[in-house]
Every structure is written in C-alpha cells, then in structure tokens.
Automatic annotation (TrEMBL):
GO BP, one annotated term: anaerobic electron transport chain
Keyword list, A-Z: Membrane, Transmembrane, Transmembrane helix
Annotated InterPro entries: DmsC
Residue ranges crossing the lipid bilayer per the database entry: 34-53, 74-93, 99-120, 132-149, 155-172, 223-243, 249-267
GO molecular function: dimethyl sulfoxide reductase activity
Superkingdom of this protein's organism: Bacteria
Protein source organism: Cereibacter ovatus
Official protein name in the record: DMSO reductase anchor subunit
GO cellular component: dimethyl sulfoxide reductase complex; plasma membrane
C-alpha cells in the first residue's frame, strides 16, 4: 500500500504522545514532559485529518462507538486528553495529584493506542496486518517512545531493546503468516473447488485510486528492516547506557526508527484486491524462480 505521509505522522506522533502521557500519569512529571506528551498527541491527531478528503467531516468518526475501532480511537483520544488535564495542572502547581484521574487517563491512553492498532489489525483482507504483531507493536512503540521522554533510564533502555526484539520477530513471523495464508484468486472468490481461477482481462484499463493506494506494494527490504530494528530500539538503548545525558539523541534515533518501521508497515502490506490485478500477496519462493533442470534423454 502507499504510505500516506499523514498516516505516518498520525500513527507515530500520536502513539509516542499518548505513551508519554500514560507514563506521566503514573508518577509526578515535569512541565516539559506534559508539554511534549500533549504536543505530540495533538500533532498526530491534527495530521490524521489531512488524510481525509474533507477534514471537517472528522466529527463523524464519533458516531459509531459500538462497532467502529476508529470511533473508539476518537473517543479514547478525547477522554485521555481531558482526564489527564487535572493531573497535569496538579503537577504544574505542585499540589496533590488526583490519583483517580491519573489512572483513568492512563487507561484511556492505552485504549486509544490499541484502538489505533485494531483499525488495521481487524482487516482480514490484509493478511500482514491481521497478525499478532499489529496490536502488539503499536503499544510497544508508544511505551518505548513515551519512556524515552517521561522516564529516560534503565527502564526506557529495556523497553527499547524489547521493542527491537519484537519488531524483528514480527518481520519473520509476518512473512511466514502471509505465506501460510496462500491466498489465490480462486480462494478469495470461493471458486477454487471448480478448478483454476484466472482473470481473462484486467479490472481496469488504466491507473485508478485502488491501484495507486491499495494494490501497489513494495518488495521486502532487508536493509530498511534492519535499519528500523537498529534505530527504533537498539541504538537508543545503547545511547542511554553509554551516554545517559544524551537523551535527545536517543529520542531522535527512536523517532527515525519509528518512521522507518511504520513506513514498512504500510508499504509491505498487500490487499487481496491486488490478486485481481496480478499482484501476489507474497513474493514467489526462490526455488520457484529457478529454471527447472532439463530432462535427460
């Protein structure tokens, strides 16, 4: 799929922002931590509206709370920002913290990040997203990024290392999951039992929104995957351990890794609609690409 810049900014910035706010709710935080959390969360939410053809219609996202993960995300974001405001003001004033508001706001932050993940994780038509890694990595990035801002130190380094391990595992497990699905045109149409199903003509005679946004997929890139694993967690953890004072550098490295990983999240995803355009969900095995040996007479 085409990685839209607005979605990259939204998912990365809001994730780190709500992760920062959730951790700030656990213990007294400085004004800079609260400012960073709110700024990142709001910047991400504003960026999400630019993915809409009519940004003013974003208000309609609040209408389907019972059935839509998008609606749950919208309500969760508003609730988190509102519930944590008294906690932030208490920290700024140096007064007693309202524990209930902090706990409720932290849970709302977690619910918002999980809802964002499930917007993609629920889609069976995109096998790479319909996988355990989607609801696991979104909170993982939020926790690691938030820890680098709210509580830089050994715990943040440990979360970053865990994030890199989970990200590397998701690449391997995701490839195997897509390969095991073995989805073909016959399977997705339910006609495989009648024989081999093939398209006798393309669905469209030229580029369309579907081919530009949904069907187009990028091949796997080991270089970018390795860069994402390195920058998202390994490098920031090394900086925190070897140079504890270089927290901004650790945060910048993590942010770069988060953008690379999220770009791959969208770019490597392939929708089953691509099968009708001749785009397979998974690359052909290397063995299948080798020419068959000539028969000996």
């Amino acid at each position: 799929m085409r990685p839209a810049p607005s979605l990259l900014l939204f998912t990365v910035l809001s994730g780190i922002g709500f992760g920062t706010l959730a951790l700030a709710a656990l213990a007294r935080a400085s004004p800079s931590v609260w400012a960073a959390g709110y700024a990142l969360a709001l910047a991400g939410l504003v960026a999400s509206t630019f993915h809409l053809a009519h940004p003013l219609r974003a208000r309609f996202a609040f209408r389907r709370l019972r059935t839509s993960w998008l609606s749950r995300e919208a309500w969760g974001a508003v609730a988190a920002l509102a519930l944590l405001m008294p906690v932030a003001l208490a920290d700024l004033a140096g007064g007693p913290r309202p524990i209930f508001w902090g706990m409720a706001g932290g849970l709302a932050c977690l619910g918002t990040v999980i809802s964002t993940a499930m917007i993609y994780g629920q889609l069976r038509a995109v096998p790479r997203w319909h996988h355990w890694s989607t609801p696991a990595l979104f909170p993982g990035f939020a926790a690691a990024g938030g820890a680098l801002i709210a509580m830089p130190g050994p715990w943040a380094a440990a979360l970053c290392v865990a994030l890199s391990a989970g990200l590397a595992a998701s690449f391997v497990s995701g490839d195997r999951h897509v390969a095991r699905c073995a989805l073909t045109t016959g399977r997705v149409t339910g006609l495989a039992r009648f024989g081999r199903v093939r398209s006798f003509e393309p669905p469209s005679t030229g580029p369309t929104w579907l081919t530009r946004e949904i069907v187009t997929g990028r091949p796997r890139s080991r270089v970018l995957r390795g860069l994402a694993v390195l920058l998202a967690g390994v490098a920031p953890a090394a900086v925190l351990i070897l140079a504890p004072g270089a927290v901004p550098l650790a945060g910048a490295l993590h942010l770069a890794g988060a953008f690379v990983a999220r770009w791959l999240f969208f770019a490597e995803a392939r929708h089953v609609a691509g099968l009708f355009h001749g785009v397979p969900l998974a690359p052909a095995p290397k063995a299948a690409l080798k020419p068959a040996p000539a028969a000996r007479g």
